[in-house]
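ok so i was messing around last nite and threw this chain in just to see what happens. nothing serious, just curious
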Amino acid sequence: MSDFDKTVYSGSGGPGLSGTSQPPAKPAANTNKLFIIGGIGCALVLCVVLLAGIAFIVAGDQIRELAGLGTETVIPVTVAPTEELTATPAPTEAAEVSPEAESGSEGQTEAGAADVTDTPAVSSEPFFGPITFALGATETYEPVDPGVSFEEGITEAHAIFDYSGMSPENTWERVWYLDGNEILRNSATWTDREQGRFDYFIDAGGDPLASGEWTLELYVDGQLLTEGSFTIEAEQPAVAQVADTPTSAPEPTATPTPKPVSAASSGGGVYQLVYTKWDGGQHSMYIADTNGNNQQFIMHRAAGPSWTPNGRTIFFYGEEGVDHQDRNNVPDVTNCDISGVSNGILAMDVPSPPNDVCLAKPNFFQGPGWNDGTARWANVSPDGSMVAYDAKPGGNFRIYFLGTADNQQFRFEIIGEQGDWSPDSQKVVYRSGRDGITGIWISNRDDTGHTNITQIGSDSFPAWSPDGKTIAFSREADGNVDIYTMNVDGSNVQRLTDASGPDSLPVYTPSGDIIFRSARSGSWGIWKMSGSGGNQVEIIANAGVGPDWAYSRMDVR
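result:
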């Protein structure tokens, strides 16, 4: 990728300094020339003094085409609904930084933007404060229209932060991700002042920035000092473009054929569903029956939940700020403080009956090493002994495992994402680009016995049926994302949905029905159908899915 920095120059302050001063007034015609020269000289000295005292820095990056075509204007980025996996997932230098070094969105204001009104004290060590994202900045570099969610169509975004302890001996690096995919990485020697405020911005050459979740990581000398995220909301749910089938992969062994939706009856039974709703800035967790009744809000900032087999505990990914729950969008420290945990994988005792955690006050647990801020979901094995989750602390997604009984830590990991367990808890089906083939794979849980069963790059979110014979998954074809099923060897591919709008994120009920997400009605909802596609009906309306669909994984018990 070929990228470059844009730096605003002002007066004689040198690269990176931005400031203004009034020019000297025009002298009268009879003014002594020596007085004119002396006045101009004083004015110039004054400008230099003013500029020397200004510590507001403006710099920016411009996205280029991912193919690295020099300085040509970018084509707006379009991404798949799930992260594109690489065939050779080696960790990048920046991604090797420990998640514990993240400063994320600490210091957030009620509006969702970090407070940058106070300049930090001088420090001998490099320091970058929390990032405030905004649509612009004032002359004194106060954020204009700050937030964590912006409407589609904006052409640039500003990241404003305070800094100190910097010198020309430091190298700083900016890394941007869009929906988890790295799209820009720039580094340069620090050439500006030791401390002050930085107004850093990104644009796409005048074109609108792509919708999705944008994440910025700022490093100094290879150490992650701060990061933050914001979302550009799409106007309507749209099917994102997906990657083509890898040229080195063989053709699929089976051709999907539509299945009439009335061909089969439901497996029956009413079970409990745990799921999330995305509100534009966070995921909130709910519990409901699989017929749509008894919906109950549980907590904010909780994604990708999963039941334990006995239904007494829910594992999930706690988003940044999970330890301080809100009531009516206002932080409530008195009633909703669950301090002692941080963003990462969490376990929560299920309130009985299910209720808002601020009222029920259940127990929470987070074992050592669970605070991986790059995780997205949790999935408890059917035998209740292990928890799988995907994360990318090294730069590319892996599936990791935790023990539920004695806080075991397992060294093995699987190259891939979006995993689901076999009924005997011995295998995992998942999406991966390993060995140069992107599609659905099956491996033993100790990362042995790898078997590729599809070779379509858009195949995502596989779910194993309770009888162990079938795998449901989503696939993009003819401009639409739909749900398919296949045998565990990849044969007998059947298309179950064909409505307009994406259908994805399937999960089986114990009786063999499929619960899934759909935007066919114009907004995201939760739907139910039989295991062969019959009796498709919406059970929960207005259940939003965020820019990265993986956070919206559901579970049924």
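not much to say yet. The chain has two domains: 5-19+54-233, 257-556.
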